[in-house]
Each structure stands twice: as C-alpha cells, then as structure tokens.
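2.7 Reproducibility. Because tokenized structures are sensitive to small changes in the input, we list the exact sequence used for Cytochrome P450, including any N-terminal residues retained from the expression construct. No trimming or masking was applied before prediction.
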Amino acid sequence: MLLVNAWAIQNDPQLWDEPDKFKPERFLGPEDERDRFKFFPFGAGRRRCPGEGLAVRVVPLATGSLIQCFDWERESEKMVDMSEGPGLSMPKARPLIAKYRPRPALMNLLSELQ
Ligand code: HEM
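Resulting structure tokens (single pass, no recycling of outputs):
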C-alpha cells in the first residue's frame, strides 16, 4: 500500500508562501492553472473522491448559511486552539466551543422554520 503524506505536501514552505497562515486568496487563480498535486483535499487519480462536486457546493452553502443567519463568538477572549489531535482525519485536539445567536434580521425567518 502506498500512503501519500498529503499534510506534508500541503504544508511544505517550499511550495506555499506562509503555509500555516489563513490566506484564502492563494486559491483565487483560475482552477486550470492550479497544480493538482500540490493541493488535493479530495485525493487524486482513479480513487479520488467521487463526492467532490457535492462537497464543494454543500460546504460553502452550509458555512455561508451559518455565517449569514447567526452572530458567532468565541467562548472567551482566548484564541481558538487549532492543535491537531491523533487520527487520519486530523481532528482538533480540543473541541471548538462557540457561542451563537440568531441575527435580528433573520429572527422571523428562522422562527418560521420550526
Ligand atoms: C469536504 C468533503 C470531502 C472531502 C475532503 C473528501 C475527501 C476524500 C478523500 C481524500 C478521499 C480518498 C481519495 C483517494 O484515495 O485518493 C475520498 C474518497 C471517497 N469519498 Fe470523499 N470527501 C468529501 C466528501 C465526500 C462526499 C460528500 C461523498 C459522497 C456523497 C464522498 C464519497 C467518497 C467515496 C465513496 C470515496 C472512496 C472513493 C474510492 O475509493 O474509489 N466524499 N474522499
């Protein structure tokens, strides 16, 4: 069995400028020009994830809805601990605890969903 260390490639400072920084703009270029073996969250080749099309539509929709509908806060002033725990799917070492409340403009809409 061949196991590719995707984490090492996707965090390699020789491939990425400040790999540990949140810089979504690094992905703004046309998709065709991106190196498919430099960033591959859905794998590569014949066994690559068949759910990619669904995932790239549903994840932004779900995330956007949560941001649009609720105000979010950390539970304290401390920054979120992004340490990784053991496991293949890179779980957070400590769970994220956040506070949220519906945005006033959406109270009526959200109450109709029950
Ligand atoms: C953000 C969401 C997702 C991520 C990051 C992800 C990532 C991956 C990765 C890395 C693989 C292994 C690819 C390889 O071996 O090269 C995989 C395989 C697979 N994924 Fe996903 N996936 C996601 C969502 C989904 C969804 C929504 C579905 C189905 C509705 C799905 C179905 C599958 C299946 C069936 C395989 C096995 C393919 C095979 O072995 O031939 N995935 N996925």
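The pocket of protoporphyrin IX containing FE is lined by residues 41-44, 47-51, 54-55, 59 (CB under 6 Å).
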